Known about the structure:
Layout: E1 2-5, H1 11-24, H2 35-43, E2 50-56, E3 59-71, E4 76-86, H3 95-110, E5 115-117, H4 124-132, H5 148-155
Parallel strand pairs: 4-5
Antiparallel strand pairs: 1-2, 2-3, 3-4
Pfam families: Acetyltransf_1 (PF00583)
GO molecular function: N-acetyltransferase activity
Family: Belongs to the acetyltransferase family.
Amino acid sequence: xxxxxxxxxxxxxxxxxxxxxxxxxxxxxxxxxxxxxxxxxxxxxxxxxxxxxxxxxxxxxxxxxxxxxxxxxxxxxxxxxxxxxxxxxxxxxxxxxxxxxxxxxxxxxxxxxxxxxxxxxxxxxxxxxxxxxxxxxxxxxxxxxxxxxxxxxxxxxxx
Length: 159
């Protein structure tokens, strides 16, 4: 097994893994992302997202897609893990742990304050996995999202 930064040729399989994750999270039709979108956002002139992949026997079996956030209290960046996914047949080989460890190593090396992510409340296997790594839930916080018609109505109100 090898963890490495994603390369442009990994984009199609990363998109496939994103689609697999959407199926796992019971949102199979939610993915609008394309190979072209991922190529531009990961490898374009000003990339704002990053990805690492887990390879086994020359095949990508998992990925972590992340971006920088910023702590106004700490005064430094952190890593926000948008997605972590390993194919079911490749699980229990340490790939998810290795991907997260890679992000933690990047955070430590760069002096970032934290690595954080969200997990669905029903996803008990992932919650147990994360707690086993020493991660703690931020139970006092509720994630809000402005999207779709509500985003258009609110964001278009000033126009």
